Amino acid sequence: MTAVSSTANTESHASVLHENRVFPPSAAYLAQTTLNADTFAQLKREADLDLDAFWSHRARELLTWEKPFTQGLDETQAPFYQWFADGTLNVSFNCLDRHLGTQPDKVALIAEADDGSAEYITYQTLYERVCLFANGLKSLGVVAGDRVIIYMPMVANAVVAMQACARLGAIHSVVFGGFSSKSLAERIIDAEAKVVITANIGYRGGKPIELKKTVDEAVAQSNNLVEHVVVWARDQTETIMQARDIWWHDLTAQQTTDCPPVWVSAEHPLFILYTSGSTGKPKGVQHSSAGYLLGALQSFKWTFDQQPNDVFWCTADVGWITGHSYVAYGPLAAGATQVVFEGVPTFPDASRFWQMIEKHKVSIFYTAPTAIRSLIKLGADLPAKHDLSSLRLLGSVGEPINPEAWIWYYNVVGGGRCPIVDTWWQTETGSQMLTPLPGAVATKPGSCAFPLPGLSINILDEALHPTAPREAGTLVIERPFPSMVRTLWRDPERFKTAYFPEEFGGRYVAGDSAMRDEDGYFWILGRTDDVLNVSGHRLGTMEIESALVANPLVAEAAVVGRPDEVTGEAVVAFVTLKGERPTGDAALEMIKTLKAFVGQEIGAIARPADIRFSDALPKTRSGKIMRRLLRSIARGDAITQDISTLENPAIIKQLQEG
Ligand code: PRX
């Protein structure tokens, strides 16, 4: 491979290739950290010596077991790895019960609603709310192994619902509240869910989100699979209830606050989370109980150097993996205090995050580059108007952070004293993989630095040799680790081919290209497959193409990404219609129609930013769509590709003009 590979998204992050600033941890940070370079060097040595013993040691130290395990890693069914398989435990017990003896009155959740009202929920209260609700689910017949879909706003009860499922050993699948009824129905059907948990309504940025209505539409499309819909009354909004629906408050009214945890085996599935891959059908990423929790908890403690008085705030929604590992599970297992926020960073104005950091004295703040970029655009001077002195550590996740946004985050939000942990990981890895460890590693803007202890991550060329410094290659994980995806829900074949392709000799292939610099720091360059990253959300180009061609007017569609200043990447769709190619106002009208259609098919996050019409799509004589050419056109770049094999060169002009 060459220094900048021909992957889909590499070119958009070219600025990191020239970045050479280095920020050692500040004296202020070092004065209060409990972890330093020696701690991690020692941990790394331990892991290098015996990986199995390393993780087994952590699993015994950090998790509470009902029955201790006798074996750490089991590779006999590779790549279906197992960890701690003969041990039993309960994830909710590990997140709640075990803190009751030591810190029942510590605040677990500071739940701030869209309208700014806040609720403070202690570990004792959270435990009681989880038990009440788990007993309610039990009364509906939910037992270990049943699938429960959670389609909720980002409120404390979303966490309660997840924890209640974990308490019963029921497998939850959280669906982000922005997904359409069709996407929701697909997930209900694939998971064969018995119960759906929702709210009558949600609010984001002052706007109501009609969750219950969407659930009704989805359940109607779901082959009578769903037996019950539990509805949390977010407010008094009038709601049509059907025979299968039950209010959350009615379900819990007669229950007790005592719900013994159901002990499950370490490998029992804790949840399924659907994510986009390179085919049209989302993948049901299945995670384990013990290994997953260990990864979430241990990384939380290392990366965020968690201390007893910290107030942690991860702004991710529980509909994504970040909201699972660093809202619903990791921080609770660690006994931390955290903020849970229903709303958006720009409502009522672009100082919402800064105002909340000041109000709740947040010390660790973890957000996505898209949020940072949009807040720079809408009010770069706003952080200075707030007291952000409680912050001691900042984090970034979900997409590459460009050095300019990093520097602003560091200076303007962090006051030059807070390290930034830029964490690379995935839905499939369950927990953070690459990150600078604050206090131990000097940071470089745009680099995710190094693997956490116990992880063997490499960048390989096509001959499977580690790439030379500054040479791009394929990011792989060489050895199994506890929090890794166990399989794809009811699709073990796809699991094998998607993540362990033969040509990589049993290694986990992440789907990203990356490079290392002369100091060994990792730099993520972008996806190598047909997956886009829009505002930190994964979208499969084929998923969007399938949505477009589902419209009776559309003959063919090809979707690519182009760099976007705020969202990282934006979706561009090239479409041919069954009828005439529209121009002028008719084209504008058609663009509106198709954008709305994709919104209905998948959800608003997948709506193309740009749609172009042509009489045909550019194809080679063998009929393959020329995607690299489309990417150049989407970016407005000069066409440098060889178009001699193009069947119909005249359409390039049409595509460029839109
Ligand atoms: O391309 C990488 C990008 O997001 C992908 C994973 O997406 P998802 O499973 O939705 O999980 C997002 C939250 C963990 C990766 O394959 N990605 C994630 N974090 C970073 C990143 N790219 C660059 N830098 C990051 N810190």
TrEMBL record:
Residues annotated for CoA binding in this entry: 204-207, 322, 535
Pfam families: ACAS_N, AMP-binding, AMP-binding_C
GO cellular component: cytosol
Enzyme kind, highest EC tier: ligase
Residue ranges occupied by any AMP-binding enzyme C-terminal domain in the UniProt entry: 543-624
InterPro entries to which the protein is assigned, alphabetical: Ac_CoA_lig, ACAS_N, AMP-bd_C, AMP-bd_C_sf, AMP-binding_CS, AMP-dep_synth/lig_dom, ANL_N_sf
UniProt keywords, alphabetically: Acetylation, ATP-binding, Ligase, Magnesium, Metal-binding, Nucleotide-binding
Modification N6-acetyllysine occurs at: 624
Domain Acetyl-coenzyme A synthetase N-terminal: 42-95
Binding residue positions for ATP: 398-400, 422-427, 512, 527, 538
Family annotation (CDD domains): ACS (cd05966)
GO biological process: acetyl-CoA biosynthetic process from acetate
Domain AMP-dependent synthetase/ligase: 97-480
Top-rank taxon, per record: Bacteria
SUPFAM superfamilies in alphabetical order: Acetyl-CoA synthetase-like
Protein's UniProt keywords contain tRNA-binding: no
Residues the record lists as binding Mg(2+): 549, 554
Entry's Gene Ontology molecular function annotations: acetate-CoA ligase activity; AMP binding; ATP binding; metal ion binding
The reaction(s) this protein catalyses: acetate + ATP + CoA = acetyl-CoA + AMP + diphosphate
Family to which the UniProt record says this protein belongs: Belongs to the ATP-dependent AMP-binding enzyme family.
Database matches in NCBIfam families: Ac_CoA_lig_AcsA, PRK00174.1
Function: Catalyzes the conversion of acetate into acetyl-CoA (AcCoA), an essential intermediate at the junction of anabolic and catabolic pathways. AcsA undergoes a two-step reaction. In the first half reaction, AcsA combines acetate with ATP to form acetyl-adenylate (AcAMP) intermediate. In the second half reaction, it can then transfer the acetyl group from AcAMP to the sulfhydryl group of CoA, forming the product AcCoA.
UniProt protein name: Acetyl-coenzyme A synthetase
Organism: Aquirhabdus parva
Lineage: Bacteria, Pseudomonadati, Pseudomonadota, Gammaproteobacteria, Moraxellales
Gene name linked to the record: acs
